[in-house]
Amino acid sequence: MFKKVALATALGTAALATAGQAMAAEYVVDTEGQHAFIQFKINHLGYSYILGNFEEFEGRFYYDADDLEASSVEMEVQVNSLNSNHAERDRHFLSDDFLSAGDYPTATFVSTGFEPTGDNEGVLTGELTLKGETREIEMPVTLMGEGEDPWGNYRAGFEGSTMLTLADFGIDMSDFPEVMEELELYVTFEGVRQ
């Protein structure tokens, strides 16, 4: 259902006021070109899966290939932009039964650290706020590539995924099979260096 793995534009400057982060290049997530996705996958009663995504979000990240530990990310997701290709189900997801989008219209993610684990790989830690609850999460991430695009911009792209326990964010799944208590959040995006 919803992993706003979200990383916010408005949250970033204050959170990034360290010297190491100041040296990392700033990238804005390319949502205009539809080169960024926040998707989710949850088991449906043990028989299949429900797949969906959040269509409206914005974010930025700071990245320096020579100083990976200075990397950081922040995002903000509009919860009402949830789309699982079924309008009635989406309304239910957004209701007080699950996301309470009327009371909690945004979800945010602000990183608190990054630990390289290998070539082009690492673990991003940060605070995910969803439905008014903030929890620290870890997400293994991979650098997909970086370089100049055909229009003279410099881009870098990443992907990552993590499992979220819905009860951690105040989402009661007790009426459903145990396999529905967790949701997989998958994020992929390109950023344009500023």
UniProtKB/TrEMBL annotation:
Protein name: YceI family protein
The keyword Signal is assigned to this record: yes
Domain Lipid/polyisoprenoid-binding YceI-like: 26-192
Signal peptide: 1-24
Keyword set, alphabetical order: Signal
InterPro entries: Lipid/polyisoprenoid-bd_YceI (IPR007372), TTHA0802/YceI-like_sf (IPR036761)
